[in-house]
Design goal:
This protein is α+β, with helices and mostly antiparallel strands. The chain has helices spanning 9-13, 65-80, 85-98, 104-119, 121-134, 148-160, 165-184, 211-241, 259-269, 273-277, 310-322, 342-352, 361-372, 377-384, 389-392, 400-408, and strands at residues 3-4, 21-23, 30-34, 40-48, 51-59, 284-285, 290-293, 304-307.
């Protein structure tokens, strides 16, 4: 007799070959089968115009019990509306055969993007762009030609370049999601990415600048500014000789561009890059000396107010004087927020000769200095916008010399 219980991650883990089948207790017709070799598949049984249909939802290696449940609900709803989902799947497969083999970029543009637009129009195009840029080497591949070995090789190369495990995992999971939809839609029978296991991310990694590195970073910022000023002077001297209109002088402004105020703000507030690039001048209170991060722009989706110390306040005051008509603190062309700061950041690090330090680590640097100054972890949590103190506890392990000094107080 088939087992009757809710199909969950736990029940699937406990599923044995001798059980053969689990009938879900909540969704009529939703069930899982296990083969003699231990492979598990999800199905939806339904009746349509007198015929019995067992619709395959997917392989347990490709989709989770929750995804299978959601898919079962969706397909049951379509059947209730008078659609034979099995027949639809068959036609989709026939269409795929007619079109021979679908290549990844064609699938992303013609199938996956329209689907994503129905889910979240704000992120749809960004997801497609992410896949095409990060997995450019797959863009001449057909969907069923993408192998786990290729992804493992790509992942290894990314790790050697110092990319964070969480970042790599996010990219791989995004590709997995796209291919799992192709499986659901019957475009391919399965994909190999289930073999690519998640890298265990070390969330305790905290990289901050020591005193010497911070001095070098600050010097590098000024050196970059000076090089840009010199380049502008040279360009204007060249144009003056030829009676060309000169570029605006950079000699009488505090900042040559957004880079220095952006870095100073990050070092003194702990803002995430995305939070800073989405800030508008209306979020800054110069009279009360604080910046408000709106909930919609925060990772935790909770707004917070961060006070401005003297360095951050002075930097923003000067930067505002140079950008009196802009809407955003850090604008790109056509009045839209900047999207990326990789190139100038890389230049600063190169000038400072600092290795293994990401822009996000400025956030760690801010937190570390607070902890080393004796600020309690809960206050640090509030300033960083962590929803859980567990994330902030990583900073409790900072700077062994400070802990040693504390112990020596009673030595």
């Amino acid at each position: 007799m088939p087992i009757k219980k809710k199909i969950t991650t736990t029940s699937i883990k406990q599923f044995k070959v001798e059980d053969k089948r689990i009938n879900d207790t909540e969704i009529l017709g939703f069930h899982a089968r296990i083969s003699s070799t231990g492979r598990i598949f999800y199905y939806l049984f339904y009746r349509f115009e007198g015929k019995q249909v067992n619709y395959k939802l997917g392989n347990a290696n490709d989709i989770t019990p929750t995804q299978a449940r959601d898919l079962a609900k969706a397909k049951a709803g379509e059947v209730a509306k008078g659609n034979d989902v099995q027949d639809i799947k068959k036609k989709v497969r026939q269409e795929a055969q007619r079109r021979k083999h679908i290549k990844l970029p064609t699938y992303l543009d013609e199938r996956y993007l329209p689907f994503l637009l129905t889910r979240n129009p704000k992120t749809a195009h960004r997801i497609i762009k992410h896949l095409k840029s990060h997995f450019a080497f797959l863009m001449d591949k057909e969907l069923d030609q993408i192998t786990a070995w290729e992804i493992e090789k790509w992942r290894s190369e990314r790790r050697q370049k110092g990319k964070a495990a969480a970042t790599i995992n996010d990219s791989v999971n995004t590709l997995k999601g796209a291919l799992s939809r192709a499986v659901e839609w019957g475009l391919i029978d399965s994909h190999e990415l289930s073999k690519v296991k998640t890298i265990k991310a070390d969330n305790t990694r905290v990289r901050y600048l020591n005193d010497n590195e911070e001095k070098r970073l600050r010097h590098a910022i000024k050196e970059r500014d000076w090089n840009i000023r010199l380049a502008r002077r040279s360009a204007n001297a060249h144009r003056e000789v030829r009676n060309y209109e000169k570029y605006p002088s950079l000699d009488d402004v505090t900042f040559v561009d957004y880079v220095e105020p952006l870095i100073l703000l990050a070092m003194n507030t702990g803002f995430r890059r995305g939070e800073m690039l989405s800030l508008e001048w209306s979020d800054v209170s110069f009279s009360e000396r604080y910046v408000q991060v709106r909930g919609g722009n925060a990772k935790s989706k909770k707004g917070r107010i961060v006070p401005l110390n003297n360095e951050a306040y002075n930097a923003l005051t000067s930067w505002r004087e140079q950008n009196q008509t802009s809407r955003y603190l850090f604008e790109g062309k056509n009045g839209v927020p900047l999207k990326e700061v990789k190139k100038p950041w890389a230049t600063v690090l190169d000038l400072a000769q600092i290795q293994g330090f990401n822009f996000h680590d400025l956030r760690h640097h801010f937190a570390s200095k607070l902890v080393m100054a004796g600020v309690d972890l809960n206050t640090v949590r509030e300033l960083l916008g962590h929803s859980d103190l567990k994330m902030t506890l990583r900073y409790a392990h900072l700077a062994p010399e400070h802990k040693a000094a504390a112990v020596n107080l009673i030595g």
